[in-house]
UniProtKB/TrEMBL annotation, chains A, B, C, D:
GO molecular function, one term: oxidoreductase activity
Matches recorded under Gene3D superfamilies: Medium-chain alcohol dehydrogenases, catalytic domain, NAD(P)-binding Rossmann-like Domain
Organism: Actinomadura rudentiformis
Residues in Enoyl reductase (ER) domain copies: 10-337
InterPro entries linked to this entry: ADH-like_C, ADH-like_N, ER, GroES-like_sf, NAD(P)-bd_dom_sf, Zinc_ADH-like
Signal peptide interval: none
Name of protein: NAD(P)-dependent alcohol dehydrogenase
SUPFAM superfamilies: GroES-like, NAD(P)-binding Rossmann-fold domains
Length: 340, 340, 340, 340
């Protein structure tokens, strides 16, 4: 089988290697990967070495999000049998609640970080607790988008924000998390506002169910949010840009609103005015993807509400570098790899 | 009767005036004020005109927090009768939930802001909905500390943070909100850590029930929090300094922790690292005092748990300027005015 | 103007009377009623005198739920102006949270109970706090169904149950509350199962968005729920029958499920097995309609999600007795009165 | 080593057997048991065979709650090392949230049920995930009371009820769960009312921190609760009797109150009036002990708040039959076995 690996930080060290199909241990499953989705954090790990380590035993394999089929199970495995379609739990060991970790480092680590195996590989062995059932109605390419992008939006809006019908949800841009936010919000009967610098993308977002699109290059988007909500503001905001951009999201938020900090495009620090935060009793949520119970809920919601994750482009798994470049250029939805 | 008033912004315009005792309307009560507590926001209003207006009819009277006795009631008043001891609801009209307001201004406004009457006055007329029963076991001076300082700590720890026994609460400094935070946390069976630059104040905090004191001038207080909690961190933090100081509080917080932004001593902007926020799934709460239902709960808690608010100094009501100066110097607990 | 009234308990005392259009007090509004919805509790009050009193001043007027237009406002009214379309808050004084009341009687009382004015009248004077904006997209007949039937379903599923997409909601029968439950659940992306003894009604429910219908006369409905959910059970159940029927709902519920006790057709006592309750960690909710904040949320949800309340039959307001009889026969949705 | 076992249902088959000390598997720990607490469910299993099975391999060993010391660990164990003091997680596999199980059977099963090993044994082998750290300040006898009795009270009051200072908690009787409820409530600054038929027990409860005792044989205890709370009622009730007794608890509850159904002394069915449930918007909680995350929180709370579990009598582990008889007679707190 083939798998992606690297022995030093930097894109130039990324190589497609050949190896034996691994054998699952007593409580493990062997999954034949059908598709794997790329996340911004994969690029940070591969190019800059962020939040990754080179494992002491075995190769480093990147990638955390995949959909595939169980092809073999260990002797003590009770949850799965060969033929089951599954998706990965990208943060192994986080079942529910706040999860493991300490004040210094937080946690947990992700698949494909070197702490745990990666999924940019034709086959992967995972603990039986690190996969959940795939949605019945999605292709592997679509299902592979759920473990991080879909779950991040679900955690922000549903698990932390307790979204309900009739509320207003603002998503920034049209990347993978934002489009999942749009679709999850629409499935809950919420009003969805999307901001973008590209009218064509706004039109595509409207086709997916967005109620309003704001071209942030044409006008002050915060003022537009106030107008579109008759002064009420947005009850939920997915802050994708991050950094000082947060300050504007706080202005756009409704009294009692929820703002989830997700993106780091605007920098690794965030800033805002205390007066907005206090006078509107806002809640800011730090989001690290989400736990397994939420992922199981998301799978049920995707099936019931008929959500089809938006895949910008599916590359053959041998074209990971091209796929990484594409992701950096700002796709509409997700960029994924498909495996033979 | 006498009352404090001003016709232009700035301490030099603050004057003690004489007038008639007002008469309550059909749904109003007349309260003889026993004591009134000072808040930092009073100083910002008086000295700098912050979040205040000069009312079109009648004089501007500062002050939002008082305890006193109902001495007359309007014809349609059902909630109160003469002789009832009450404290003020400092943010009138906010009964429960997120309360009134819009995305532009938030809300609501406070007593003593010019939008509503102020309580630095021997008598005050208030809507019957704008007062709640005073705790049975406190003096007026003590009870006057509840409407803003006590309620702010309660909102942060209990209403928003859902504090439970065994958790760790960190309070910064020994001002009014922080000491209420200490006492409320201790009453809930929490571990309390106090930071201060003054060993004498830490000793007094320990006498009030703090489990640990950290002199922030002697050592790195964040590291100390990690050590005192065996790496777990603080589950709840009252961020009193604000501004960039927030970044350090995020480092001190536990996985799943709650950080309430309260103070503005460090500036009106806040900043921190997204990595701390995300990897520890923190929740940041913007706190604007609290609603009436929480104030009623706080009153019951104070009585049941035997909490005695800490009054640094009680000044005769004629010495408001001296009291404001004292508050600026960093008292241990609250500075209040007492009325004859 | 005409209004319905009675001077003694019992249907035979119900009379359409004539009187002057009332004049609003300083904080009141005069509403020209467009439509009023009937609730089971109206029948209990009119026929059996349940939870009603004859007011000491003025006539008893039944009816709590109406939609209409503000035609005059008192001098101190700030929330409304003539021309505003409004619906009634059926439990006056309950703004948010748990609301008023004590351990002996609970509370609050409803409009049309004698404690408060009733709305089966061409015009009604209400406190400005006792109405909220009507949905923009509904007729008065449709909007009049929200204050009790719609709000009861919203409170059970959303406010208490915290419904999310992908969960399974079971509603019993096809009365007003159940059909609102169906529509609210579908608007949140939930799977909806309806039980009924009538296949024609199940077909109509499917057309409204129900995923599955179970004819309870054809088969064991609890077993059917287990099968339709692959053993998972229902996450939310609106228990409309009540009494001992609750025991079966507990069997149908999922682990961690929510069961809302709403109906009293099966008797005023409820019963069930502790083992179901405990081993599935169920939560049983006692539901008394809901508070004003929830009603405002429901109005926004209805407009955003395009929910059209189901009106079985609209009677001219002069035919209240016929309408009451119709309601007793088990309508599909609501029975309402329309006013000229 | 010795351990208790039986090959057929019924007390007469209960025997103390001898066997080899077991050896832990790769992810298991061997614990030398210091003390084990008895629960009512142990008697139901031993005497009546309730919710138990005879395992296909190995002997049936009763008992779910123990405190002891890790003496050996498997090769893959990371959480523990020899010398660690631990207590058992009585419902293995329930980490957080609603946990595993389906609509038919609920779940999970307990230690000592035959589905999982039992702890009435000098040594027991358990999965490393099935124990948590013991409180630092308790003896083994005291600590053994936490896994079921302590956790049940914590789940009801804190995890489900979200208890806060100043609220009123009613506990019925002075058994193990009730006394934990008393102590947990007092540690959170709540007002505690205890009912009992025995004045001596009420006096002992007062010494433990109860604010009020009501002798249910001397007067109507519901009326007494109303009086002691000035008509407010109890915000939280631990319903220990169950059956039709629940109806009285509903009468005693406050508006918005929480009633947790725990006991089955009054029968395996419960009953009450819908009017109490609805008009007071009560929440009834089905409680099955609790999850591991709550148990970890309880351990921290016990250490921080200085809670000492009440042990009525500690029997040598060879006297299990005598201990079971004692438990049936209504002890004050817990009956435990101590091991050499």
């Amino acid at each position: 089988m083939t798998y992606w690996t690297m022995t030093a930080t930097g894109r130039e060290h990324l190589k497609l290697a050949h190896g034996d199909v691994p054998v699952p241990g007593p409580r493990e499953v062997l999954v034949k990967v059908g598709a794997a989705a790329l996340n911004f954090r994969d690029r940070l790990a591969i190019d800059d070495g962020l939040t990754m380590v080179f494992p002491e035993t075995g190769p480093f394999v990147p990638g955390s999000d995949m959909a595939g089929t169980v092809v073999a199970v260990g002797a003590a495995v009770e949850r799965w049998q060969p033929g089951d379609r599954v998706i990965s739990v990208s943060l192994p060991g986080w079942i529910d609640g706040s999860g493991p970790g300490d004040a210094l480092l937080g946690g947990p680590e992700a698949l494909g970080s070197g702490y745990f195996p990666g999924v940019f590989s034709e086959y992967v062995v995972l603990d039986q607790e690190w996969v959940v059932s795939a949605p019945a109605n999605l292709t592997d390419a679509e299902a592979s988008a759920l473990p991080m992008a879909g779950l991040t939006a679900w955690t922000a809006l549903v698990e932390r924000g307790r979204l309900r019908a009739g509320q207003t949800v603002l998503v920034q841009g049209t990347g993978g998390v934002s489009l999942f936010g749009l679709q999850i919000a629409a499935a809950h009967g919420a009003k969805v506002i999307v901001t973008s610098g590209d009218d064509a993308k706004l039109a595509r977002a409207a086709a997916l169910g967005a109620d309003h699109g704001i071209n942030r290059n044409s006008r002050d988007w915060v003022q537009a949010v106030h107008e579109l909500t008759a002064g009420h503001g947005a009850d939920h905001i997915l802050e994708i840009v991050g950094g000082a951009h947060l300050a504007r999201s706080l202005e756009a938020a409704a009294v009692g609103g929820h703002v989830s900090l997700i993106g780091v495009l605007g920098g690794f620090e965030f800033a805002g005015k205390i007066s907005d935060l206090a006078r509107k009793k806002l809640t800011l949520h730090g989001i690290q993807v989400g736990h397994r119970r939420s992922l199981e809920e998301l799978v049920r919601a995707v099936d019931q509400a008929g959500i089809s994750p938006v895949i910008d482009t599916a590359y053959p798994h041998t074209e990971l570098p091209e796929a990484l470049d594409h992701m950096t250029r700002g796709p509409f939805g997700k960029v994924v790899l498909t495996f033979p």
